[in-house]
Give the backbone structure.
Amino acid sequence: MSELILQGPFLTRSQAARRARVPVQVLVHRPDLLRVGGGWLQEVYFGFQFDDDGVRPEIGRTVQSLKPKRSDPVIGDWLVRPNRSLGHTSPLRYLNSGGSVERVVELGEREVPTLAPPSITDQLESDAPAAAPVAAPTRKGRRRAVSRRPAMGAR
């Protein structure tokens, strides 16, 4: 998977709470909903998760099964991409046509990438001890002042 496909329309937090028929404070803790955002990006919810009756049960069950080990944007991307195992239709279209939730969950468990272990950046930003100083070579081969940044090869 190279780039994530985030298919709209999207709902704001208050719009999603109205559609789900729950208070906003409850919405943000629902394990059966996918959301994207945070930081500089306003939190939004994928519109395909909702119908006139609230949260679509087949989407909610799928999301809740996949979410503990996978990120919301990655699950959302997988749901809208054509899937060879489903006859080149997306899991979302497959579910829309009455397909089996169990089959989609089983495929998702096998195909949707799990959350990566913490990156080196995460580790450096944690409370771990700082990297040992590295002397940086100069053009003429002489050593200059010791740098506190890790060497390029250490990344």
